[in-house]
Amino acid sequence: MLFTTTIRQIQDAVGKVSLAIPVKTIDPRYDNVHLSLEDGTLTLFATDGEISVTAQCGVETTDTGNIGIKAKTLQEFLRSMYDTSVSFTINRQEISDHGMVSISTDKGRYTIPCLFENKQEKSIKIYDITLQLKTDELLDLVQKTIFACSVDGMRPSMMGVLFEIQDTTITGVATDGHRLVRCRKPIQEQIHEKQKIVVPARVLSILQKLAQSETLTMSIDEDRRSVKFSMENVVLEAALIVEPYPNYEAVIPVEHDKLMHAQRTDIYDSVRRVGRFSSIGDIKIEVNGAVTKIMAENTNEGESAQEELPCTFTGEPIVIGFNAKFIEAALAHIDDKEIVIEMKSPTTAVIFKPAEPQEQEELIILVMPVRINN
Amino acid sequence: MSLRRVIFHVDMDAFYAAIEQRENPSYRGKPVIVGAKPGKRGVVSTASYEARTFGIHSAMPINEAYSRCPGGIFVQPQMALYDQVSRQIFDLFEKFTPLVEPVSVDEAFLDMSGTEKLFGPMDLAAKRISDALKREQNLTGSIGVAPNKFLAKIASDCNKPDGITIVPFERQAVLEWLAPMHVNRIWGVGKKSAVVLQTLGIYTIGDLQQVPHDILIRHFGKVGNSLFSLCRGIDDRLVETGDAAKSISRETTFNRDSSDRLQWRQVVYELAQDVALRARQSNVKGATIVLTWRLSDFSRHSKRITITQPTNLARIIFEHALVLMGSVHERALRLIGVGLTGLTNEVQEDLFSGSDGQQRLEVSEVTADTIRSRFGFESLKKGREIKPGEKLPLRMKKENSNIE
Asked: B306 at the A interface (CB within 8 A)?
């Protein structure tokens, strides 16, 4: 087997498929990048058993064949190289599946072992829903929701983003039980029957790194167990989370009697500064009239902080405790300058949203308070 | 700041063996070895000073100890008794200062700063503690007196048994006092670091004092900072009392090393119950669950998992501890412990607490606390807690069919 390409091209393809390879694995099946030469095209593939990435790389060849190379070895070699033309010559050892890859460049010869493999069987999944999406819009939806996903393995359904697709709207929802984000965006296609899938956060984080083309195709298989994102020369395929997603709509409060308008960056900067003074990361927000007080203390070290900010507030005065990090994260994911904070009581969810919703987007972020025991 | 504090480190002498000698007058003056049974696998837990003259020391294989001293008195540990004595000793320490930090069952740091008017100069105060241990417990301890924890710990080891060592309080004198000691006396310098230090030609703390800060950072990273301070006798850590508990933990030592995973699970369940109850009594919750285990060679290992919602519920602690237990691949364990850290008394509200049974679980465990506080801890048990052949309380026998 012989093919010729450039370091930059193959490095780009190997870098993409390697995203599917887990950082730590004890299963050697998932250590390799699989290379397949067919019809003058080099296809690279890697998987962790749940997520797989396939990428194409432009090569010059007339050969066919399939091999596996240890991803780490190949990646480290390519990373250390400069961009130049490179030839891969693969020779099989006699009476063995093992072989050697000889890599030749203008300056050197390098040899790494490989494993000859059978041709990868093509997926027999039937994808009955296909959506053509603007990459920027989908990535924006992912970016605004993924931060709220749970990392607690005891709540598997929350370890991903719920996508609800109906009519001409796609809704992304993520929660870890303490905060919840719901972001809605329009899509081109019309989906009559409501579709609900939960895509693992890791898949979306890989998608964020892979998606570069202007549009991409999102496909859902007929069993609602797999999702596929197809982009230019790259396909990301993954198993969906099948555990039922909690009834998130039931926890979004519908009535709030305390409304506060404020400048997003003012509150964000203040929470960041004051939060540093807390021993366990909690802050108190007191709203009374046109002034918001943000307070924190570390009684162990005798430290404390308080800032006052102007705001517009309607309703009875209120004091609520929050995890400062949750507030920071919520505010960091709203683009608008002015925000509305809707409150009801010190133990009910508080809603953060843009003061003037964008035409093409509806975003709300819920944060549960911290109950402060004295 | 550090030189103004007065810190005592009290280390009980051959604690387990000394208790055995106290409880059994016929053992006194004889070599007593507490640990596994000779002829079986296992190691020495504690050897009395008489046994140490035969070269016997902690963690030595028990059969080697036996071959060195076949006439010795070999006894198996009575952990419940040692725990009880330990509690009494800590009560005694608290008569001298409220700032007592337990290090283990038989050693503690005492912050004696500002107690001169009550107990006299530091040497006299140390003598008073030493005398009280003898008078009230008939046991001896070695005491290190120093301006900080690091120096006090080194000092208590300088004059064992039943010794009092006072470290100089002037900076230059501290440097000179430390200089001839081997570098491995410094906390954090293990075998690997000692080898690295030796390759740099550093054998004593005095050698280390000559090494510039940037060289230490280059070779040891962040640890280089603490090496730079400790070799100069600088240690600003406070004596941390149980009042500001950072963790709650319980451990069980098996009578003999256990390879029965069902028994491990049973013990983990009981420990989780105990830890959860203590957390609820202290009105705190913890976000990190720790599983600790000891092997027959006394080596201690632990694994931890951090959850998003701090808890004080036995079931949650148990379930996570079980997950951690899944990664324990040892054949047999000597001890298992369950702990809860990252404690807080502030509760992050949960959006779905009502829907995933969390609230119901909380109510059920708090109700169980109420029942147990009235009728005793044993009055309420889950089916998994009942050991085969265990005699059930009368109340449970009648309602046997209801047991889970």
From this structure: no
